[in-house]
Every structure is written in structure tokens, then in C-alpha cells.
Amino acid sequence: MVTASPFHAGELAAQRLTGATDAASAGGAFIRDAMPDQHRRFFAALPFLVVTGGDGDGQIWLSVLEGPEGFAHSPDPRHLSMAATLHHDDPLAASIARGGPVGLLGIELATRRRNRLNGILTTTSQGYLLEVVQSFGNCPQLITTRVWHRDASHLPGPVRISDRLDAAQTARIAAADTLFIGSGYMSEGKGAANGYDASHRGGAPGFVRINDDRSLQIPDYPGNSFFNTIGNLIGDPRVGLLFIDFDTGSLLHLTGRARIDWHPGDSHDPDARRMIHVGIDQVVDRPSALSLRWQRPSGDGLTLNVIDKVVESEGITSLHLASADGAALGHFQAGQHLPVSLDIPGRQAPVGRSYSLSGDPAAPTWRISVKREERGIASRFLHDAVRVGDVITARRPQGDFTLPPGERPLVLVSAGVGITPMLSMLHALVTDQPQRQVSFVHAARNGRNHAFAGEAADLVSRGGRMTRLVHYSAPENEDDYRTFGRTGRIGAADLLALPTADDADFLLCGPAGFVAEIRAGLESGGVATGRIHLETFGPAG
């Protein structure tokens, strides 16, 4: 179930300071006191987990808990069991062995998926058991794709401890495109918001600026508007950092205190909304601490030509893409997204984003449809600068927001640009399962903002057992009632009233607040959690 009060005073203060109260309040419905089945399977498939907590002196540390495939498993939605322990020279090992509150991050670098847990850890005969207090997903921003393997012959080197960075450590941080940050919040009582948070930060190499051997600064980019880390640091400046050397498995642990610059006018990174300044108290360097090694994937890079550019609605534009060598691009699973890498003038490194594929999965070319965000680096570039004939670099389609197998009825529910994965699903269903019962339900503000109205209507008409329901929240005089059927917002009650609701799988895509509200209403109406499938989005940037 959804936790009653997911945010503490520091997080709420950060949300107010940044004007993100409404977005965070809507997204807060995704913070739960148990893991959905999708997250349980996700954690169980990982070869490592990032964990954070406090030591006996109150310092915050992060580390990596690694084990063989399947070392983590979830016996029930409220618990995660881990058959592994931290090495005795790990700065977090002693406090973890005593048990207590921790933050846990699961991240799958190959697919750029990540999910987080906060809870209470206890030791077991096999390792650790986490009782979940908060569970939520994270959007896959600024994650560098890597695939892992193990070095069976790895031998950890001697640990080095100091109160400052040496030249080699400084060079490692300067070259890093990934770090993990740990923070905590403790108040009177045992509120769900108490505890620790482990989070990922990424950027182009050099995104972490080193001031001197005892201080550095980390840019804070737009995220999910929860402000878990920033909110923690408002109340408690203690912070932990972890840098992984992906080539050698070495871990560089830092602990210190943080200060937030809310208006970094003279920043080394123009994309930073805030800057986290960290004063270093202690450094623990553990060479070859892990048996895991990572490398950038080879063979999945694609060079795509923009062969057409179509304005679909006010604010949404489609790019039609073909392989630069003229070959068919191949099929993708309906609902998947395309990771792209954009060379934007003035940027030190390519800007990565993911956009849902909105066309027919069986077509020889692909289509992505992008909403323009006024402060979005990538979306403004795609809308304003990219032209037919330009080249875009991408990787193979990814994502698990796909059609459930079988013949169970489907209810596809979208809002705004959330229609994009639904379109590819409609294409696939018309081709592969024309007799499957499908209800397509879409919300738009009005006709000017309603992308793909004609295409969706045509697809539904071609399906043998498909229906369409469109809501306009603010229709204009010129809008045709034959295009939309209802005025006002879509609610769970509208979906539960559909003839197939009792037996259907519901697929939801749209802004976080929209999806959270619909999901909560469906669950309150008796729809099993396993029959609700989600994809959310925020500003793509």
C-alpha cells in the first residue's frame, strides 16, 4: 500500500524552495511500504546492490554488496533477503552487522533501470534481511550503460585510509561518470521518512569538480522532484560518497559534510540546478574490492538517419528514423523506448535520453515522438535544431513496459505524450491479436494538444474487438465531439465501469501524478496489483 506521509520536513522544505511541491505530492503516491512484484523480480536478478548507513561515530558510508546470481531474493513484498556480507575492511561492515536502518539501491547498468528501498536491516545465518519501510522506482537518467562480468582470480589489495585525496584518487574522481551518494534523516519517533537514502548520480566525465584534496562539488540535475538527498542534507549535512572503478572493481569511499548552493551562478556545469559542496573528513580506498568488472557494451550502437520530421500536436513532434546503411532496423517489442545520444553544440559530452517508440514494431523504420520541454536540453534540440538528413546515435530498444502475453482483455490508458507506447501496442495488437479485447482510453487537454488522434482512431477501427474513449479536460469551441467523447479528467471509476474491467490487464502511461491517482483508484476498486502495469514520465529534458 502507499505510505501515508512519504516525505519528511527536509524534503518538504526542498520541494517548497524549488517550486516542486505539486509534482512531488503527485509522485509521492509511488512511494510504498512494500515492493511491487516487478521490483521483487528486479532485485533478485542483480549481481550487486548499493547500501548506505551510518557508522558508530555517525559518519555516513556507502558500499557495494555483491554475490552470485540470485543472492538476493524476496520471500514476500515486505522483505528482501541477501545471501552475502560486507568484507571486514569495509567501512560500513561493523555497523551493518549490528543491524539498523539502511538505504538500498538496485541498479541494472545494462538496461539503465534502478529502484530504491529504505528499511531496517538485520543479520541472518546467510547474510542480511531487509524489512522494507519505503519502496520506489527511479527514472533512468544519466546512467552510463555497462555490462558486467566476474574476475574469478581477483585479489583485493591493501586498504588505504586517509583524511584527504591523493593524486591518483583525484584523477579517478575527475574521470568518473558515475557516483553514489548516501544521506540520512532521523527525527523523533519512527516515521516512515526516517532512515537512509542511497542514490545514483551521473554525468559526463568531469561532472564532479575537485576543488582541492579535501573538498569537491557535485552538480544536482533535474530529477523526480522528491529531493530525498537534498532534503536529508538540509536536516543533516553528513554525507557519504562512493566511486566505483568499473575496470578494476576498486571502491573509493568518502565521508564528510555537505553544503547546498541553491543558486550556483558561477558553476562549472551550466545544467546544474543546484550544487552540493562536500568537505571530506575521511577517505577509504579499497583496491580490487569487488570481483565484478564492467565494460561499455559493444555492437549495440546504431547510426540513424532522420528521414522525416512531423509536428503531431502543439508541443509534440515525431522523428522518423532509418538505418544509415539502408538495412531494415528490425522489430522491437511494442512499448519499448529508444535510448539516444545527442551531440548538442556547447555540451562537453553527448546528452543521453530515452524516448518511447511510437510506430509499428514491424516497420522497417522507427519513430520517436518527443514533447518539447521549455527547459529541456535534448527536447529543445530535437524540436528546434535537428533536421531531415541529420544523424542520431542510438542503442537497441529497451524497456519492459510491454504487452502482457495471453488473451486477457487489455485497457490501455494514457495522458498527453503517454500515448506514444500505446500507439506501438495498438499497431502490434491489430497485426498479431486482432480479436483481443482492447479498450483504448486517452486524456488530452484539447484538440491542439491531442497528438495522433486520427492514427489511434484508425487503428481501433481496424481491430476486431477494440473500443476508444477520449477525454478532453479543457475542450475548445472548435473541437469536434466525434474526436473526443467526454469532457473532464479520466478517473479510475471510468475504467472500472468498462465492460472488461473485471478481467482486464491495465496498462497506464502518463505523468506521475496521473498514473499514481489511477493506480490507487484501481486498487481501491479491487483490481489486483499484478494486473496493473505502469510507465511514468517527467520532463524529458
TrEMBL record:
GO terms for molecular function: oxidoreductase activity. SUPFAM superfamilies: Ferredoxin reductase-like, C-terminal NADP-linked domain, FMN-binding split barrel, Riboflavin synthase domain-like. Pfam families: FAD_binding_6 (PF00970), NAD_binding_1 (PF00175). Residues 299-404 form the FAD-binding FR-type domain. This is Ferredoxin.
